[in-house]
Amino acid sequence: MLTISPIPAFSDNYIWHLQQGGDHWVVDPGDARPVFDALDDKPLSGILITHHHPDHTGGIAELHRHYGCPVYGPGSIEGVTEPLANGDQREILGQPMQVMDVPGHTLDHLALLIEEPGSNGTPQLHLFCGDTLFAAGCGRLFEGTPVQMYQSLSKLAALPPETRVYCAHEYTLANLHFAEAVEPGNAAIRNRIAESEKLRADDRATLPSTIGEELATNPFLRCHIPGVARRAANHGANGGTEDSDEVEVFARLRRWKDKF
Ligand SMILES: [Zn+2]
Fold this sequence. Notes:
Helix 5 (172-182) packs antiparallel against helix 6 (187-201) and helix 8 (226-235) crosses helix 9 (246-259). The chain has 9 helices and 14 strands. The model has no long low-confidence stretch (mean pLDDT 95). Helices cover 34% and strands 25% of the residues. The protein has helices spanning 33-39, 54-57, 60-67, 146-157, 172-182, 187-201, 211-217, 226-235, 246-259, and strands spanning 3-9, 13-20, 23-27, 46-48, 71-74, 82-84, 89-92, 95-101, 110-116, 124-130, 133-134, 137-138, 164-167, 209-210. Strand 11 (133-134) and strand 12 form a beta hairpin. It is α/β, with parallel strands linked by helices. The protein has a domain at 3-169: Ribonuclease Z/Hydroxyacylglutathione hydrolase-like (Metallo-beta-lactamase, Chain A). The strands form 3 sheets. A 6-stranded mixed sheet has the order 1-2-3-4-5-6, with helices on one face. Strands 7-8-9-10-13-14 form a 6-stranded mixed sheet. Zinc ion binds at residues 51, 53, 105, 131.
């Protein structure tokens, strides 16, 4: 059985720690020290990387030097030993892993989908999406266009609703407050704020979430909802004309959130 737990790093990053039997992998180790602490004396079998930002890659060199383990990720990143590209299938921890490119936050950004056989015959999907899809939010557009990011998010939104979503930052509550400003009448958002506040009060991660939860509460996955389009228009930099084009709604929401 695959266990997945967050290793907190910096002020709000999570390095996801995957464990199956004696096999240990980490995703996006921005810092080596918390990984050494979490593993104690156990060996690291491999590293997965979603994109090139230093808070996701800063620990690669030290961990690779110490454990000599393979590093899977975008081929342009220094220290990656197993370059991945869109459509690749690999086996990680004995489970199939599918690679999707999700440009927008950065141009090299990958999402990694691990399929674990379920007890009832339905596989459990685990999505490692770095800084592309956040709980109730999405990453900033540092390198890509709104069209690219919207297409990337749409790809992730199309995964089965039970898919577990492991993002790389604890931004959930701040994102939910923005979501509530976009959709003040959305009860799912209100409920999620209450649940997340409880978890944070106990110093627990609000993650993973699921694609189903994101579809119900994440404004960036709800650009097709007329109420969201209307609110985006009222706050969009281009003035108050409602636009039914989902990419334009997305772009307006992203600009609004940048200043929220
Ligand atoms: Zn990033």
